[in-house]
Design goal:
Helices cover 56% and strands 0% of the residues. Helix 3 packs antiparallel against helix 4 and helix 3 packs parallel to helix 5. It is globular, with a radius of gyration of 20 Å.
Length: 147
């Protein structure tokens, strides 16, 4: 058997025997593989006594930009740019708790592809984020500057 025939047979059959290790977002495989187990307790936020509101806003802007996935970075950084400056301390604290959740959980809760847990199901903040994610104005979103 020639080398060309062996390589062609190996390459043509490899796609059937291996599953894609990095499925695309919004595919059923990705949604299933990024689900946080229900028996995992919600994360405990870090106590930050005496943090000023300006420092808190600056920290939340940074944490919204540096999530680890481009999808979450873009969604949360544009949300922070549009909404953080109008939020009072209780809403900022709630947003801080939301940022402690998994990136893909936040992303899929906001886009409506996954049902949020009870602790977030009735949150007005998550409703704002869902509305932002719908992008009904069809705004082209880019990462805002850090200034």
């Amino acid at each position: 058997m020639s080398l060309r025939r062996v390589l062609a047979r190996t390459l043509s059959s490899s796609a059937r025997s291996w599953k894609d290790p990095w499925p695309l977002p919004h595919t059923p495989q990705h949604i299933a593989s990024t689900t946080t187990p229900s028996d995992v307790a919600p994360p405990q936020p870090i106590a930050r006594p005496n943090e000023s509101i300006d420092t808190m806003r600056a920290r939340l802007v940074y944490q919204s930009r540096k999530r680890g996935t481009l999808e979450s970075d873009l969604l949360l950084s544009t949300f922070a740019r549009d909404h953080l400056h109008t939020m009072a301390i209780p809403e900022l604290s709630e947003y801080d708790k939301l940022l402690d959740e998994s990136d893909w959980d936040i992303y899929y809760w906001a886009t409506g592809n996954r049902t949020p847990p009870d602790r977030w199901a009735s949150s007005p903040l998550l409703q704002k984020l869902k509305l932002h994610a719908k992008n009904e104005g069809k705004v082209v979103r880019v990462m805002p500057p850090l200034s």
